[in-house]
Amino acid sequence: MAPFCQAQVDFVKATRGKIDANPKRFFGDNDWREIRPKGGRNTPVASNKTIDVNSFNIKPIAAFVPHLLLPNHVPSCPHCEKKEKVDTHGTNVRWINCPKILFGLKSHRCLDAKLHWCSSCRRRFSGYDKKSMQLDSKEWLGFFPFNLSERFAVDDELHSFTVNSANSTTTSIVNHLKRMCRDNYHNDHQHCLCLVRSNRVRPRTNVHSQKRIDSHFSRQKEKETANERKSNTVKMKLDHVARKLATAKSKLDSGLTLQSIVNQKHNRNQVAVSLWHLRIAKLSRLLELGISTGQELLDSEHPHVKSDWKLIVEDHFEQIRNNVEELEETVNDLTEEQLLQNITLSAEREQRNNQPAEATETDPDNGLPPVFSAIDDRMGCDAKNLSWSRVNSVLRTD
After folding, report:
1. pLDDT tens for residues 169-192?
2. What is the DSSP string of 171-192?
3. Cα angle 249, 252, 256; round to 5
4. How many Å apart are CA 244 and CA 224, to the nearest integer?
5. What are phi and psi of 176, to 5 degrees?
6. Is the pTM of this model over 0.85?
7. Are 99 and 60 in contact (CB under 8 A)?
8. What is the pLDDT of residues 229-240, one digit of tens each?
9. Alpha helix locations (H) across 255-366?
């Protein structure tokens, strides 16, 4: 179980042991689709029990063992497509080596199953083998709400969200999911801070092996002056415009490769793609005729090539040439501005070096920000996974 932390490994092993000991009682008290661990976000605030901070890192488990969940069910072997000699109990049946990641809307779970043994073909297969489940689809249809792939699985909520967001770009869908996960983890941290404030979290034994948040601020840069900030801004703008100019010139030098435009049109994130009126079918037809660039299209006398297509490509080339001229003027202006900023910055640094240094007392904590919160992380329960925006949010509200 290499991809998981030790707390997750212990929870998986404990859950497997309880299922093997008394499966009827265990699945009578727990939903197999989401077996939640004790502690973490599942800890009631009014309870007096103390928890381990690592319990916030434990994800729920979906234990799919159909021969224990469905009465008299025996999975079919995906190799010989028979179930008469498939073992569901005994020494030949064991749990899989590593649970599969089951992704959801806000977080993920661990999809666990057992490896079954077929005496007919003498091969093993997992309980969620796709072909085996296809053979037994009439038995578990409506019972298994997840969508499987070779390396991971997706639950019904995430699948529904993705399918019903077909009109959105892929980047937009991914950003929505990232924000939802970030909010979920932020709520976990808020709940953890509440429990720490109530002395409900047990200290860890390896506190000294983990760095504190303040250690990341021990070496801060000197505060930038206005001229330095302006110089850095001009340099960033110049680099950005120079990259755009190089891209535009490469299009002219290559003669506008049609295959790259076809690849862009296949990408749903490319909204303002080049040659809007020439669709994929037309461009593919031109590639089949041996016309691979826009320049070859202008020079071609093939009867299949229409005059309107040449006008579209010629207008596009003209737009690129105008864009190159504008970008070259912008690069020249920014280069002159950067030169002036460098002269001003050099004079400012020389003046600063000539000034006598002020005598100040050495303070080991000088430059360090205030502590993360009033808790002061005495029990090793820091928030090292929070982003800067979330840290600032907690500082404002804690």
Report:
1. 888 888 999 899 889 888 888 888
2. HHHHHHHHHHHHHHHHHHHHHH
3. 125
4. 28
5. -60, -45
6. no
7. no
8. 888 889 999 999
9. 258-266, 280-288, 294-299, 307-354
